[in-house]
Amino acid sequence: MTVINLNLDDKIQKVQLDREIIAGEKKYHLVFNDEMYQKIADLQIAEVSLLDQLEKQKEDFVDKMNVNERQKFLHDSLDKALVNLENSLDTILGKGEGKRLYDYYGKSTYLLSQVAEALVNLNDKINGEQETNYNRRKKAVRDHYTKKRG
């Protein structure tokens, strides 16, 4: 019987989950593991839910609201988006960081959303690296066992 020695640590290219990012002149050390994945997914769900609500009220906005109601609707929507972003960034970067970054970036919800989008993109990139490495490992194992024996 042949024993196959396989050191997975040598074979598997490790994905670096730790990242250091700078936002608002502050350095953050983040680990893009399952916990971070969930926090970023929560951020995305909150934003998509808000967009869905806005889309559902689009017809009322155009057909039924007067100018004052439209202004109130837009102000309320922007306020909700800001609260979602600040709360999500507090969860990801630490308590109070959403408000600090909002103030730092000139009280711009748009710029704050750019910070959130950059975190989402980084998370997607890291998870893509993990998937690529998983597929590479799977292919290596398949190739090893399907190699023609001569």
Keywords for this entry:
150 residues, 6 helices, elongated
Order of helices and strands: HEEHHHHH
Instruction: Indicate the low-confidence ranges by residue numbers.
Output: none
The main sheet comes to:
2 strands, antiparallel
What is the strand tally?
Answer: 2
Give a structural overview.
This protein has 150 residues and is mainly alpha-helical. Helices cover 71% and strands 8% of the residues. It has helices spanning 8-11, 34-56, 58-63, 67-93, 97-104, 109-146; strands at residues 18-23, 26-31. A two-stranded antiparallel sheet has the order 1-2. The longest helix has 38 residues, at 109-146.
Concise summary:
This protein is mostly helical and about 150 residues long.
Layout of secondary structure:
Blueprint: H1 8-11, E1 18-23, E2 26-31, H2 34-56, H3 58-63, H4 67-93, H5 97-104, H6 109-146
Antiparallel strand pairs: 1-2
Helix pairs in contact: 2-4, 2-6, 4-5, 4-6
